[in-house]
Structure formats: C-alpha cells, structure tokens
C-alpha cells in the first residue's frame, strides 16, 4: 500500500487543553523526542493569544530551540495576520490557518464570524506563500458542532470551494474537532472535498471522543489521504468545546498503519517512550493503549519473537 504522512500535533493540540503547563524547555524536549522517533512534520506551536490559551505561551522561544534537522518541517497554527507575523519571525516552515464551519463555534473559538475566518485564512495563505512557506487551511468542526449539532456537508463543500478559488492552499485539512464523525461521513466529505478542491492534498484530524477516531483514520486511506494528524499518548482536546477529549494517539495509529502495510517512517517504540515521558511531565495517565499492551508480535531484546 502507499505511504501516508503522520503529522504530530501533540506539542500544539495535545497540550492546549491540559491543566499542567509545560515549560519551554519541556516543549522543546517533546518536539526533539518526536523528531528522534522519525516524525517529519510537527505542529509545534500556536501563535494565539496566551491569555486565552496559556498552554501555548512561549511559541517564539520554543521555535528558537527546536532541533533543525534536514527533512523536518515545523508547522505553526495561526488565526490572523498578527499570528502570521509572529510565525514568520519565528522561522516556521509551514502555517496552518483555521476556518470554523459554524457561526456558534466560530464566535466562541475565534471571536468572529465564519466569513471573517475565511477572509483571514485567505490573507494568511497568500502572504505565507509569498514568504515561501507551505500552507494548510483546517476546517474545524467539519463533522459536527457542540453548540448547533449536525453540520451540513454542503456547507463544508462551499467553504472548501471558496478557499480553493480565492487562495488555493497547499493542503486542506478536515477536522473532527469534537470526535463525532463516523466512516460514512469521512467518505462523503473526502469525495466532496476532492470535487471542490481537485488536486489539493487532503489532511485529516480526528479525535477519539466517541471511539470512532481510528476507524475514521483508516477509512481515509481508501480516499487517498496524504496526511493524518495524531497526538503522542492520545492527549489533547479543544478548550472551547465541551467534552472534546483527546486526539487519536500517534503510537496507536502507527500500529494500525504498520500492520496494514502503510508506511509512515515513524518508530513506534519511540512514540511509546515519548508518551510515557509526556504522561510523567503532565502527571497524568497516558490515554493511548499501545503502551499498555505493547506491539504484536512481541519482540524480545535479542530480536526473536
């Protein structure tokens, strides 16, 4: 089977809903551990107001300390021009702009309308591309909204079409921000996004809130997904969405992909070890399952089964 990029979003989405605030040095170590495990795209920081999301404070200091390794691309999440200016000054390799699919969530998450987020994303993509950065636009709550319920897939198609016509980002990401999606929705949105944004690679962001995240991730493989977001240990969640628990876990996803003969180039044991380190740093149990059960077949230190 073909390969797929695993995008490690733990340093950003994995931390943003945690009560324990990691130091800049701990965030840098987290990122370095992911790099050592073979991850080559990492959403390392978020250039948002630290008063609203204190877990994301110190973005510039983190970027100043991350290991600069050939082939490793660091992504910064930005919401507006101010965030982009900070990202450019911090020498990120990519930016990820966010459009929220519903008015209710957009007002709570970003303090503005959906129309405003679309316009901001278009400006970010154009200016980031002019500066030589790769660009992604993520459409949040694409599968369902915690405040208004179901999201009409035609609305997602319309947003994707507008982004494509006005800015044509390098990548379109569809996010199940609150973990309500199921494989049938994945197939439908993948087809609609292909129609609305032909030729633009698709990236997917799933949460396992209702135990459907891994089924959804495996479903997108049949839709030609180029990249899947995941978070070491399964930590994460959105601070502006009620009951939005963790992302799919990087190590659990890599296990499923490896066993499906899908190449990620990421070392599973390195992720398990990083999850254990992160659990200690956050003083929490690791939500992911692989660290408890181990890989299969089990391998002894001498390399035999």
From TrEMBL:
<keyword id="KW-0479">Metal-binding</keyword>
<keyword id="KW-0456">Lyase</keyword>
<dbReference type="InterPro" id="IPR000891">
    <property type="entry name" value="PYR_CT"/>
</dbReference>
<dbReference type="InterPro" id="IPR013785">
    <property type="entry name" value="Aldolase_TIM"/>
</dbReference>
<comment type="similarity">
    <text>Belongs to the HMG-CoA lyase family.</text>
</comment>
<protein>
    <submittedName>
        <fullName>Hydroxymethylglutaryl-CoA lyase</fullName>
    </submittedName>
</protein>
<dbReference type="InterPro" id="IPR043594">
    <property type="entry name" value="HMGL"/>
</dbReference>
<dbReference type="GO" id="GO:0046872">
    <property type="term" value="F:metal ion binding"/>
</dbReference>
<dbReference type="GO" id="GO:0046951">
    <property type="term" value="P:ketone body biosynthetic process"/>
</dbReference>
<feature type="domain" description="Pyruvate carboxyltransferase">
    <location>
        <begin position="4"/>
        <end position="272"/>
    </location>
</feature>
<dbReference type="GO" id="GO:0004419">
    <property type="term" value="F:hydroxymethylglutaryl-CoA lyase activity"/>
</dbReference>
<dbReference type="GO" id="GO:0006552">
    <property type="term" value="P:L-leucine catabolic process"/>
</dbReference>
<dbReference type="Pfam" id="PF00682">
    <property type="entry name" value="HMGL-like"/>
</dbReference>
């Amino acid at each position: 089977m073909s390969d797929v990029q695993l995008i490690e979003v733990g340093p950003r989405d994995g931390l943003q809903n945690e009560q324990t605030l990691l130091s800049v040095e701990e965030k840098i170590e987290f990122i370095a551990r992911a790099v050592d495990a073979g991850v080559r795209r990492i959403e390392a920081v978020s250039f948002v107001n630290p008063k609203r999301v204190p877990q994301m404070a110190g973005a510039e200091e983190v970027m100043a300390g991350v290991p600069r390794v050939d082939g490793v691309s660091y992504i910064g999440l930005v919401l507006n021009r101010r965030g982009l200016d900070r990202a450019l000054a911090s020498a990120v390799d990519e930016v990820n702009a966010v459009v929220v699919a519903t008015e209710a969530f957009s007002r709570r998450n970003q303090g503005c309308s959906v129309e405003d987020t679309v316009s901001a994303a278009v400006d970010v993509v154009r200016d980031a591309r002019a500066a030589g950065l790769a660009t992604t636009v993520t459409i949040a709550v694409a599968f369902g909204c915690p405040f208004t319920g179901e999201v009409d897939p035609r609305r997602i198609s319309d947003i994707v079409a507008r982004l494509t016509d006005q800015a044509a980002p390098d990548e379109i990401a569809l996010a199940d921000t609150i973990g309500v999606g199921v494989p049938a929705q994945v197939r439908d949105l993948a087809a609609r996004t292909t129609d609305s944004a032909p030729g633009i690679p698709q990236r997917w962001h799933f949460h396992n809130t209702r135990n459907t995240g891994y089924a959804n991730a495996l479903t997108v493989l049949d839709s030609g997904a180029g990249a899947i977001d995941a978070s070491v240990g399964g930590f994460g969640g959105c601070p502006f969405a009620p009951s939005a628990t963790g992302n799919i876990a990087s190590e659990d996803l890599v296990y499923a992909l490896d066993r499906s003969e899908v190449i990620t180039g990421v070392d599973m044991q390195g992720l398990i070890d990083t999850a254990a380190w992160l659990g200690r740093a956050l003083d929490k149990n690791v939500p992911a399952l692989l660290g408890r059960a181990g890989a299969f077949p089990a391998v002894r230190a001498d390399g035999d089964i």
